[in-house]
């Protein structure tokens, strides 16, 4: 059995104001009463007998509570006082885990609609990881997405990684074939992961080793120690430099729920979402999406709009402009931080 490492540090800014600092996207119980975090834990129980979550310290309590509600026995939560990106988060987990344990590392906020295909991919990844490889799950692209990194591959071999492309390049890769979306799901023995980190990102390795040693002694990650860790993604620090990376291609139904359109689509296809106690979501023939629960929102003579009504803020946005929420979120952070 593997150990499940859940990366819970995401802030879900693209779903503001529904997602906020206290209850980010992965903790919203929108999916038949479950959160994305809980669904992530449940779908991996078949392969993992232990779970460890890397969390923002403000959310450590609710993360532990949700995991226990979902059936986790004694989940371990590493509470980060300050985020240092995924390389540090994954390294912390590897230092704390048993060296020969295979770690299954997943984000907390993905939604999978084909659990059988997912399970097959994870089983294959576990076999490759047992052979001392760093394994990533690659998703067969269905449209020319510009917000994901891509992997050029042959069989299980990684030929090269491609940064987030522009539209023209994404369309060319989709037409050519032989490319996968980088899912952000990894599988590797703890000691192999640390060996690769030490070789390719020694500064992160050394600084994270200190933080992990302190945690083992005190049960606390100190802010001063964490701030000394260089901030970098696992992809940049290790994956794109390592010579032992393998990929498992998969055609699973996958979403990172990165927009209100994606959220409404996922809920309409997979869940009984209307009139849910946590939120009401409606999509009408004019392709308007209304999200809220506290008051009636009526739209007349408009189309392709997204309206999100929460207790603290009202968002009105044209569909397809979801990437602009990051800029709006930054403005709110600078001018009205109490609304985050």
Helical segment count: 11
Rg calculated over all Cα atoms = 20 Å
The CATH homologous superfamily name of the largest domain equals Spore Coat Polysaccharide Biosynthesis Protein SpsA, Chain A
Estimate what percentage of residues fall within beta strands: 15-25%
Topology of this protein?
Blueprint: E1 2-7, H1 36-43, E2 48-56, H2 60-69, E3 76-80, H3 85-96, E4 102-107, E5 111-112, H4 115-130, E6 134-139, E7 150-154, E8 157-162, H5 167-176, E9 179-189, H6 190-200, H7 202-218, H8 223-227, H9 234-239, E10 245-250, E11 254-255, H10 260-270, E12 280-283, E13 289-292, E14 305-309, E15 314-318, H11 325-335
Helix pairs in contact: 3-6, 3-7, 6-7
Compact description:
This protein has 340 residues and is of the alpha/beta class.
């Amino acid at each position: 059995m593997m150990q499940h490492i859940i990366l819970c540090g995401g802030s879900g800014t693209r779903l503001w104001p529904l997602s906020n600092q206290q209850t980010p996207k992965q903790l919203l119980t929108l999916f038949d009463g479950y959160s994305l975090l809980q669904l992530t834990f449940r779908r991996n129980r078949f392969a993992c007998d232990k779970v460890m979550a890397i969390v923002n310290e403000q959310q450590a309590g609710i993360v532990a509570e949700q995991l226990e509600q979902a059936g986790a026995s004694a989940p371990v939560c590493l509470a980060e006082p300050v985020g240092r990106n995924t390389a540090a988060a994954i390294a912390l987990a590897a230092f704390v885990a048993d060296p020969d344990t295979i770690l299954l590392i997943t984000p907390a906020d993905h939604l999978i609609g084909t659990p059988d295909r997912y399970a097959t991919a994870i089983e294959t990844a576990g076999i490759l990881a047992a052979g001392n490889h760093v394994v990533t799950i690659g998703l067969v692209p269905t449209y020319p997405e510009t917000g994901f990194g891509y992997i050029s591959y042959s069989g299980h071999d990684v030929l090269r990684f491609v940064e987030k492309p522009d539209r023209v390049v994404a369309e060319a890769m989709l037409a050519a074939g032989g490319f996968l979306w980088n899912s952000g799901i990894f599988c590797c023995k703890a000691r192999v992961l640390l060996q690769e980190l030490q070789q390719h990102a020694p500064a992160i390795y050394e600084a994270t080793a200190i933080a992990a040693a302190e945690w083992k002694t005190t049960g606390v990650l100190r802010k001063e120690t964490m701030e000394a860790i260089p901030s970098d993604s696992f992809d940049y620090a290790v994956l794109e430099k390592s010579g032992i990376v393998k990929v498992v291609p998969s055609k699973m139904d996958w979403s990172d729920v990165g927009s209100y359109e994606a959220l409404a689509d996922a809920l309409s296809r997979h869940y009984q979402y209307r009139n849910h106690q946590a939120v009401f979501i409606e999509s009408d023939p004019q392709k308007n999406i209304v999200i809220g629960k506290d008051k009636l929102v009526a739209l007349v003579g408009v189309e392709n709009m997204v309206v999100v009504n929460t207790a603290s803020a009202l968002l009105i946005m044209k569909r397809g402009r979801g990437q602009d929420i990051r800029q709006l979120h930054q403005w709110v952070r600078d001018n009205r931080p109490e609304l985050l």
